[in-house]
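S.,

Sequence below, as promised.
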Amino acid sequence: MLYQVWLFVAPGLYKHERRAVSGFIISSMFLFLCGIAFGYFVMLPQTLRFLIGFAYDAPVKPLISYNEYFELILIILVGLGVIFELPVLIFILSLFGIVTPKFLLKNFRYAMLIITIVAAVVTPTPDATTMLVFMAPMIALYFIGVLVSYVVLRRKESQTLAGGEAQ
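The prediction came back faster than expected:
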């Protein structure tokens, strides 16, 4: 679908705009696929181990239908794919001057609260271990986003200085 949108938009863009948009699309796809891989190889086994663990503690066997199983997989994989887009979101906000690295670091406590709430909502099981496994990459991605914001700010400052020297 993104490719079709790209084919529609690309002819109307300048060469430097095409390069920027293609970098944005490639990084977004890479982060989304990393999120899916993390969900498939780390989160899904963790969640299924927790759900199947009920069978050993109780005389009742857990019965999961195909629809529930695929819905669980879809929620985990797509949810983590979207969560892994956090550095791209911070990049866009930094590009427009909405956030700065100083602002992001200063308000880390609030970001931690939001990350905890999002992890609690997205986590398909009620155990704290799974929630912490969701929170760990989100915190790491937040700090990667701070680094991305720092790079964007430095690049803007260097372009401003270069533009000021040319005049």
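The CA atoms of residues 92 and 98 lie 9 Å apart.

Coffee later?
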